[in-house]
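Record 1 of the preview.
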Amino acid sequence: MRFASLALNDNEVLLTKTKLKKAGFSDKEIADLEPVAERQNPHNFEWYYFISSKKD
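->
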């Protein structure tokens, strides 16, 4: 996993686009969010992004 920022605080969690969609975010809202990390899929070697969100 590669991080764009140094660290997350205890009130934040990393979410994928799939988790954000399940939480009710639209594609437009997700596109406007800034990724904070990315991870490479070990099966197809594509990179996917993580978005930081506040914990509930």
